[in-house]
Amino acid sequence: MALKMAPLPHEWMLISIIGFFVTVFQVYGWNKTWGVTLLIFFIILFIASLVSMSGAGTSEEELVELAVHHPKVRRAEHRKK
Length: 81
Description:
Strand content: under 5%
Number of strands: 0
Distance between the termini: 29 Å
Structural class: mainly alpha
Helix content: 55-70%
Shape: elongated
Number of domains: 1
Radius of gyration: 18 Å
Order of helices and strands: HHHH
Largest sheet: none
């Protein structure tokens, strides 16, 4: 049984990278407890975005369902045969 998941938005990876560096250079020097906590959080966020990218399917049906911004998908025309 394959695990199906949709990929997380690319902003999650960007936020995890930026948050990691901000935490290392700013927060960790100010408060070590908050620094370690935020480092763990941003590392988990980064790993989750990597796992969701590798587990996302690429079949045409799944990709069409994810394209909700497309007008045909909003009107469900992609399902009509």
